Amino acid sequence: MQYNSFILPANTIYMCGHSLGPLTKSAKMQMEQGVKEWEEEGVLSWNKASWIDLPMQLGRKIAALIGAHADEVTVSDSTSVNLFKVVQSALALNPQRKIILTEADNFPANLYIAQGIAHSNTAITVSATEQFFENMSKDVAVLLLTQVNYRTGKMHDMALITEYAHSLGIVVVWDLSHSVGIVPVDLGGCNVDFAVGCTYKYLNGGPGAPSFVYINRRHYDSACSPIYGWMGHRTPFAFQDTYVADSGASKYLGGTPYVLGLKALEGALSLFSELDLGEVRKQCLINAEMLIDCLRKWVSEVLCLSPELPELRGGHIALEHNAAYFISRALIDEGLICDYRHPNIIRFCVNPLYLSPEDMVQGALLLGQIVRKKIYLQDKYQQTLKVT
Amino acid sequence: MQYNSFILPANTIYMCGHSLGPLTKSAKMQMEQGVKEWEEEGVLSWNKASWIDLPMQLGRKIAALIGAHADEVTVSDSTSVNLFKVVQSALALNPQRKIILTEADNFPANLYIAQGIAHSNTAITVSATEQFFENMSKDVAVLLLTQVNYRTGKMHDMALITEYAHSLGIVVVWDLSHSVGIVPVDLGGCNVDFAVGCTYKYLNGGPGAPSFVYINRRHYDSACSPIYGWMGHRTPFAFQDTYVADSGASKYLGGTPYVLGLKALEGALSLFSELDLGEVRKQCLINAEMLIDCLRKWVSEVLCLSPELPELRGGHIALEHNAAYFISRALIDEGLICDYRHPNIIRFCVNPLYLSPEDMVQGALLLGQIVRKKIYLQDKYQQTLKVT
Question: Of B176, B181, B216, B162, nearest to B79 (Cα)?
Answer without folding.
Answer: B176
